[in-house]
């Protein structure tokens, strides 16, 4: 799928490694100068002729979390092994995954001096214009993704979307500060813990040497949002995406996910300060955008993979979906029950609810109702803003 | 040393490491970079630090992180009692106050906590910072100085630089996201549940007395169990516990005595819901599949 060109003047391993780091950066893995330096040192320590070893070493150096680790292999293949052509089968890849596999592919890395084959590397029939970055030495995405990109980019530029974002930010700010009436010992606090100071001073002849403090503990409410982007929701998806962006950018602990037939975590992509890059990342993630829905299965995946970390009894889980599910409603009910057992509050925003004469007749929706703390309409911005008082009460 | 030889050495000491993990550890040792290990509980993240210490024949210094961990527990603390005694004693000698002050804020009165202790070792120690995700974000900031420069700043004394660079291993269960700054200073490896082959090798290393057939059954069962819908999936530590329990009970075949096998599942399943999710019928089915 992906195509690489080396810069014409790229000579020697250092240059190519630097190019690789730029390639990683462009694809959302933050690798910089220090990584390049470490990588060069590392290549001296391993057998740089062995693609498996190089891959493994670079992976340890460049990736920062499990998510990046999963993506690294593809990015590595795209840069070092594709030789500028689209890969047809995956045979080349699987051989290279084997640490012991001997293949000359990375010999370019070591020999490196001047096998300048840069001109052989053409992206497929000039479909590069869309991003305006047909630049040399970058990956050029293929057509399909480009269409998705333009589609999503439109979503992000309108005035309404800005408003949705502002509404979300306001909501997020107003709920993140739950306060407790109790006071707890704390490193830095407003008041002295006189009792503890006196108690401790006894052993030092009554001299209050250590000062202890107390403060009211923060009781942050964290928001976890799940957005349905299946076919039936596409008309609302853009507003909701902007809403999510607002929620996520207001608070570091907010977590956001998209689901259609698969579940994708988009918090990091939404937090990207470079809006254009955020959109690009989103559109890569949203492959399958506008397809069918599997709410039950996705919730199950969410429960199994992410809930343990991001959902606790102070969480509010916001599900934005119209409730049309291709999974059996029992699955949805069971997974909602499981989510509730973590102590989270569940809010379901359904854009259809705002319609006159709406009843939750979709089987999925009917099954979900008993497990919801709040079931609200969400087809206008006003509806979204109306959430605020409810969220403040909890 | 190459990464393969490190892998072999690890294996001789009883730790079966995947290629990627061995490579990451090898780079951490050769380049002197901290190594961050993430992964589910019980896959041997902590153990690798212990094994590394054993291999390098050096001291393992462990810092267990928890919420509210602060500098005085992790880095250093002044020994107040001794300082007070010293002040009292010097008051009787009528020493000038500057001299007293200099005296009581000397290294003699410093209590070294794990981080300070680690960088003051003569021989490079292995510093294990366990479950760093449990500590507060402020604590990460302290760590940054130590992990990049291997030095500690104490306002009263100045900066203490490392006499030897410790091998640093950080582990995390992903209770919260670590900061990018910390991640970037570390090499990274995600340790996952081992595949069948690796797990067999681990059991063979750790419980050599176990018969091959039973070991195969155990591994097959645990591998199948991990695919079940459980709240807490069993790690390698659990597998080893279970293997030891079965060996201790003198079991030769999991299918022999379903009742007993069911009873020993306490080693693997640690929540009530998981126990309920694996009744005897499911257990029998898994045993059947494992055989």
TrEMBL record, chain A:
SUPFAM superfamilies: vWA-like
The protein, known as: VWA domain-containing protein
Classification via PANTHER family: BLL5662 PROTEIN, BLL5662 PROTEIN-RELATED
Pfam family, one: VWA_CoxE
Transmembrane segments: none
Domain spans labelled VWFA: 220-389
Biased composition (Polar residues): 90-109
Region listing for Disordered, in residue ranges: 90-135
Regions of compositional bias (Acidic residues) in chain numbering: 116-128
TrEMBL record, chain B:
Domain of life: Bacteria
Gene3D superfamilies found in the cross-reference section: P-loop containing nucleotide triphosphate hydrolases
Matching SUPFAM superfamilies: P-loop containing nucleoside triphosphate hydrolases
Ranges where the AAA+ ATPase domain occurs: 31-197
CDD domains per record: AAA
Recorded GO MF terms: ATP binding; ATP hydrolysis activity
Stretches assigned to coiled coil: none
A Pfam family that the UniProt record links to this protein: AAA_5
Annotated PANTHER family: MAGNESIUM-CHELATASE SUBUNIT CHLD, MOXR FAMILY PROTEIN
Name assigned to this protein: MoxR family ATPase
Natural source organism: Oricola cellulosilytica
